[in-house]
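haha ok so turns out i had the wrong file open the whole time. this is the CORRECT one, sorry everyone. sequence first:
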Amino acid sequence: MAEDTIEQTRPRSAINSKGFCWMFVCVSVALLLPAALSWFFLYRAGEFEDPRSIAKWLQRTNGLYGTALNNNARDIALSIYLERKPEIIVLSSSRGTEFRQQYFKSKFSCVCMMISNIEEGIGFFEKVKDVYLPKTVILALDYWWFSETDDHITQPAPDLGKVIPVSRDELLKPYEWIGQHKIGVSDFAAIVSGNLDRSPFSHEPKLGVQAIKKSFGTRADGSWSVMSVATNTDLHPLFTTIKLQMRNPDLILKEKFGRYAPDQKLSEEKLAILRDLVGRFEKQGTGVVLMLLPVANPIVEEMENSGRYTFVSALRERLGKLGVEYYDFFDSRLFATACEFQDQHHGGNAMYARMLKLILDRNKDSILVRHVDRTAVASIAERWKGRVVAALGEETPRFHEVDFLDLGCKK
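then structure:
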């Protein structure tokens, strides 16, 4: 009888075991499938590509790279520079990203987003001095770099060989973007299937979710495409504050710290670092042009009327006495309108083309004469005045700049 019982229970045990295995497999697939799909989506979009590979791809395709996952703007800027080996560069923060190859006869690279203070300029020089140096560098300066209370932390030059692992939270980001309506389910499916052009604004080759979805990102020359900003598409929440401050510039007087805080003092130490950086470039045979970048008209006017930004006036005077070719474009009221700004301190394509034209008009002996395409900058400055983006070929007929800062600009 015992044997009969044992024989009867064996098949049931085997069935239970198989059922458990199938359940385990099904649960595992259910748990892993979303992560696997998300990984494949990010892989297809190019979000896992390393900076050197991206720079090579950009030069080969003349495409656009705009990541939604990585904080790698400095790595990309450095990689593009090393790949292009340009004759002339703009070395700057994000504020230089509107300078473009079309403005120059010489091979150009915008090494922008590279430095957030003057100390990082030294870091860039030391990183590349034994690899390649350009014939000419435009040091495009932010005035706040020279404040005693500048709060930008100095970062070392990027280590392009360092691999940064993707966290679980980052891996699942695509589902968060879908929930926030930054991408649609159709975008997800299209990218997984290999369609990497979901933007209506331009149709160049693309890598990175922001480039693919809204034509936002880095071009082959290191400049930036900001079509999504100009079309008021998926603007960053900070634009609420930006719009408010552009319409009510007296709000800068309430800033307690940062670039617009009043009553700052000029730092002699920072000026000494700038002289050091200029000297290092010149010693290696690289010509240097200093350029103080513009601030939007209403902000400049408020600074001037308040009388509480005298350190900026002192800086402008001191830069002119360094014995280096120097151009002061801080006061945008002299050559541009607020409609040509992305925000309080990021100018647009037409404005930056006009700045180069003004240099050639004012100084026939400038070292920029042999680099700048006079006809191109004059044409771009005139054709696209009043706008942020100059449509220089890659844009589609559906791209149309709007008054995204609500300043009453006619676009």
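The radius of gyration is 26 Å.
again sry for the mixup
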